Design the sequence.
């Protein structure tokens, strides 16, 4: 946990005791700037590992928090529980921990856009870009075809693609691979 801000390391130790091997390997690779493909069983902490590194970068100011720095793409519509467990709960808890120290830290925002998003929510994303943007492969593709969408995505520092195995050999996977490139 030496790669993380002391407040995040302390929070992690109080919450989880120690990291799993897959998490340590992930953090070592991403901290050196490598692209990483993490393969491990469901529930092993892969998504959480990716989000925690991104939160560290945002809270320490390495990545800007006033624009979209993290893009999370999932092909699954039922990703709410994954987001809640791996991002929103840790985000709230870590923010409280920083606030209790009296440190001035940024307010991080998270927004989701999918085909079900209302027109007003879509516009709100462009007017106030979130620190962390959650979307589907199809919506990501559509954003790349619009100037506003490309502007929103122009500052991305980290892309987390979840559940890639479920679409890797499909047309959705091909479109996602081309979009990412």
Sequence:
């Amino acid at each position: 946990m030496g790669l993380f801000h002391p407040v995040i390391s302390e929070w992690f130790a109080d919450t989880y005791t120690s990291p799993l091997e897959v998490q340590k390997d992930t953090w070592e690779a991403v901290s050196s700037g490598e692209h990483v493909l993490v393969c491990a069983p469901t529930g092993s902490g892969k998504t959480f590992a990716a989000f925690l590194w991104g939160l560290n970068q945002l809270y320490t100011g390495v990545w800007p928090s006033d624009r979209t720095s993290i893009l999370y793409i999932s092909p699954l519509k039922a990703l709410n529980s994954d987001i809640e467990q791996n991002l929103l709960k840790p985000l709230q808890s870590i923010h409280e921990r920083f606030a209790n120290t009296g440190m001035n830290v940024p307010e991080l925002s998270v927004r989701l856009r999918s085909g079900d998003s209302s027109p007003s929510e879509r516009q709100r994303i462009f007017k106030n870009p979130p620190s962390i943007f959650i979307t589907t492969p199809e919506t990501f593709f559509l954003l790349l075809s619009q100037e506003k969408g490309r502007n929103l995505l122009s500052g991305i520092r980290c892309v987390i693609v979840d559940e890639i195995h479920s679409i890797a050999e499909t047309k959705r996977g091909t479109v996602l691979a081309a979009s990412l490139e």
About this structure: The beta strands are 70-73, 110-113, 132-135, 158-161.
